[in-house]
Structure prediction request, 73 residues.
Amino acid sequence: MKQAAEYREHAAECLKLANTARNEAERRQLLQMAEAWERMAAERERRIQIVRRGGRSVHNPRNFGAISPEPRN
Prediction:
């Protein structure tokens, strides 16, 4: 699986290309691609953190009880 750093390299390349785009439409498309690569990098890092916490996401309401210090009835 690809690493977040590799996704960010793709984002940086898109930004570099956007600076030399031939027209505004091409520039916008490259900027959107850079944003998408950045989102994928952030998501990859988030998923790695979930795995390191034992597979439980504190942002997922279904897992709240699994990490709650109080016993469930």
Observations:
- The longest helix spans residues 24-52.
- Confidence is low (pLDDT under 50) at residues 63-73.
- DSSP finds three helices and no strands in the chain.
